[in-house]
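Training component of the fellowship. As part of building independent skills, the fellow (R.M.) carried out the full modelling exercise for a liganded target. The chosen ligand was fructose -6-phosphate. The inputs are recorded below so that the supervisory panel can assess the work.
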Amino acid sequence: MCGIVGYIGEKNCVPIIINGLKRLEYRGYDSAGIALIFDHHSEVIKNKGKVSLLEDKIDSLDLSANLGIGHTRWATHGVPNEINAHPHFNTSKNLYVIHNGIIENYQTLRTGLQKLGYEFITQTDSEVLPHLIDSFLVKGHSLFKSVQLALSEVDGTYGIAVIYEKEPDKIIAARKGSPLVLGIGENENFVASDVSAIISHTKQIVYLEDGEIIQVFKNHFNAKTNLDKEVKKEIHEISMTLDEIDKGGFPHFMLKEIMEQPESVRNSMRGRILFDEGTAKLGGLENVADRLAASKRITISACGTSWHAGLVGKYMLEQFTRIPTEVEYASEFRYRNPIIEKDDAIFFISQSGETADTLAALKEAKLRGALVLGICNVVGSSIARESNAGVYTHAGPEIGVASTKAFSSQLVVLALITLLIARKKTMSLVDGKSIALELSHIPEKISEILKLNDEIEKIAEIFKDSKNFLYLGRGYNFPVALEGALKLKEISYIHAEGYPAAEMKHGPIALIDENMPVVFIAPKDSTYDKIISNIQEIKARRGRIIAIASKNDNEIDKLVDYTIKIPDTIRILMPLLTVIPLQLLAYHIAVKKGLNVDQPRNLAKSVTVE
Ligand code: F6R
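Fellow's submitted model of the complex:
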């Protein structure tokens, strides 16, 4: 949510910041703004809507500066408009702040500052920051000290960047619960909320930790804690390339990411399958594997699509390791005083590694002494760094707001973890070997399904104007039904529900008529006969059925309206195949409705507010 880019150096920062904001636009896109410091004055330009509109406005002004900060917003407090857009500034309009996160005590701070004579012009929580910092500057403190003192009064989360006309040699940046990195260049430095914003300029990255404030000059930087202790920061060389974050000829990131899945799931399993031993080698879990296998209970906590992956993980772990496994929404886990025993292991799954609810739940579990394990995609992300141990999914950067390749990679990692634990327990070598071998064939089977793209597009054309959808599946495919419904609703704005197929007759069947498309996930597995009965029940009520079915199933065509035939695999891996047509169906319906699939309304990638 929201994106931050800052530059200090010798070049004109305007195009650098604008291009950085465009790369971050997937994180929030309802307004954008930039503040620039020139020799003896400063300027702030903001606009409602996309970064390209801000760019047009700036182009007409022909500005050039060596110091600036920019922001793309996902509104929390106050409607998306020009006034509420960041950067915010003090009354003298010489100090500028951009902020990601939420200031929880902003009302109290605002009232206090108003009493001191500060006037507020926005509806945002963030506007307290420039005034609060200003209230320390006027007492004679330096910018750094003023930011430090101001933050000591703030409750909530923040990633901020601050610039000041009277100290034009620096950017001050700080974080608490909202990601922020420093990029090191030659005679130039960058600040960003996400490395993708600055990757075209530098691969030398410093990750800020919670409670750190950093002073960034053009040739050096220094960091302290909120309590004024010096911190020595490590510089990391990152491997992400620009190609990975470009559309690569596809019309949308989402389609590119769907199509990338043979490769991304291959990357998730690369070097991790031990075929001869029928198990997995996961370096990040090596030291805790025995403890994991001895766990009395496993909990998986996550949000959204990652939570759906967690549900599939429950089916995998319980079937093969026999360890009771619970799956909890991170937002619920944190606030309900969960029972955590000392032998518990808790996995936190997150593509971004920055989801505020998941991170907060992780911290709570850690505080109570659980073994805290991360399954993250973004290397160096907060959840990855806060975990005791973990596994990266290695899906590569996911830019489309609707998660696709991250989900399939999470499933691969969960299957590998299951193999690792189960083989330490009761799974036989023969079973381990057959799962390992079948896993290695998943990429080619995904490629086969992706060839059905045109066929799925035709089905999308038929159903694009439907107002509701039902997705039904059993066992391993029940979470896939939830995921299919989520994909559709988030990018096409069509109301969609996922249900366990048998639950349908306990209520949702009342909705069925000729206008209700029902997507059945019906591969030939041990519940196939039951699902066929459910299909009959829908047909008897004139529902229109799209079935995801096994390629050798010739019977199902007679019962349903449309079939999408996919290759077979073993049950534990079936979600890796059944989810692919559902991603494509959602994508094509949204495109046909003329919607912006990469930036759906109201959403943002990486939900860093609770
Ligand atoms: C849906 C989607 C969201 C995320 C959720 C968790 O397509 O992307 O539901 O899955 O916000 O995000 P991460 O995995 O980054 O913690």
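The panel noted the following from the submitted structure. The mean pLDDT is 93. The first helix runs from residue 13 to 24.
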